[in-house]
Structures are given as C-alpha cells and as structure tokens.
C-alpha cells in the first residue's frame, strides 16, 4: 500500500482485515488513537459509559451509531470511544475532504471516514454506508447535519440514518458526547470540562413498522435522536422537548406515548443477530 493512497480508494476498502487482506492500513489510525486519545484524556479526562452496548456487536453485526451534534469534538470522541478493538467509520461533509490541499481528507480517509454531500440524497455515500453495515462495520452519523449554536436558523432532522440502517440490516445505537459544547463557546476562551461519552440501547428499524410507510423512517430517526438527547440531558426520553429542538419536524411524542416502542438490550439484539447469522450458514 502506498503512503498516499487515493482518498476515493480508501472509502471503498474495509477497515477490518488481517495481514494479506486488502483493507485500509491501520498504522495511521493506531497512531491517531494513541496521540489524540492521550491528549483528550489529559485535557478533558474523558470517559465512556455504556461501551458494552457497542462491544456486544463485535464480530456479530454492523451497527449504525447516531449522535446529536453540539461540538466539533463530537466526531473525535465518537472515534475514540470505539477504539482500540472497534472502529467507527464516520460520515462527514464532503468539503472537509478538500481542506488543506486534501491532507485533511487523506487523514480522515485513513481513519475510515468517508464523505457525504450535505442537503442532498447522496446515493454514493448511502451505498457505501449500507455496504459497510452489511460487512459488519460500524458507521457513525450525525443526523442533524450541522452543529447546534453555529447560527443556523433552524435545525433539521435527516431521515437518511434510518434508511441506511434499514438497507444495511443493522441496529441503530444512540450515543452522546456530554459537555463537548462547553469546550469552545463563542467569545470565550478554550475550556477543559470533563467529557463523558455515553452509548444507549439499540433500536430496530422494524419496530417502527406500525407507522404508515411514508412516515416510518422519519419517525425512527426522530425517536433515535430523542434517545440521544435523553442521554445528553440525563433525563427520561419522554421528557425531551423535541418540538423545541426541531421546530420544523413533525412531533411524534403523542404517537409514541400511545404506542411505546419495545426496548431491547444490546446483548439481546446481538444474540438474536448471531443466531440468525448462524442459521443462514
């Protein structure tokens, strides 16, 4: 493998792999994890809660990890939280891959990230993410698309997350990066609060089939994001004010109050997926 592989080539290569198999080389990702992980541990004393919910799917199934987006550090801690035994392949806006003459894109690609065209149905990105999930990889998505607090007039929810999970036949795992938004606030100095990454319990897209077909993906993404904000705010999901967070999105609170979605543990879902996988062999 050459030192500077074309970015587009890495987007379509798997991250997991043994010696002799064609995959994204691990040396850069391991170096990034060691250096960045050490600095983040030193500066923000970060910890990961609920990591067993992610580990349960190792060597069993792909997982779509979704997170609310409050800071530029969210993706850093998403990546660090899965290492060293797993890798989250992050979907990032395409303009990032052209920064610094493509050097940032080279670095992002080497840790498994791949681009998506924002505010459009990027079939290439969807196809890549779906393929990764079917291959048993972890894919990380920020359904809000942009960070809160950047002056955006209105935050939107993008249902592509649920669509990718359905196409990739993978569970959705909500997570949050708590206190990252305090690191750099407008007009203030850099701060170093203690940061906590937390993984919740998995969701199955099929559990939302009681909705009309045209609403299932929107409702599933809405529910997944409510779980993320519940983790972030450390309150029951039913207490999250989704109408205030996403004024333009349909509020499904009443629908879920009337028809609660079944709760699953990661161990339960992983066991069911492992059994189904074994039966197919």
From TrEMBL:
InterPro entries found in the cross-reference section: Plipid/glycerol_acylTrfase (IPR002123)
GO biological process, one term: phosphatidic acid biosynthetic process
GO function terms (MF aspect): 1-acylglycerol-3-phosphate O-acyltransferase activity
CDD domains per record: LPLAT_AGPAT-like (cd07989)
Keyword Cell division: no
EC numbers on record: 2.3.1.51
Record's keyword annotation contains Acyltransferase: yes
Domain Phospholipid/glycerol acyltransferase: 63-180
Keyword vocabulary terms for this entry: Acyltransferase, Transferase
Protein name as catalogued: 1-acyl-sn-glycerol-3-phosphate acyltransferase
Source organism of the structure: Parvibacter caecicola
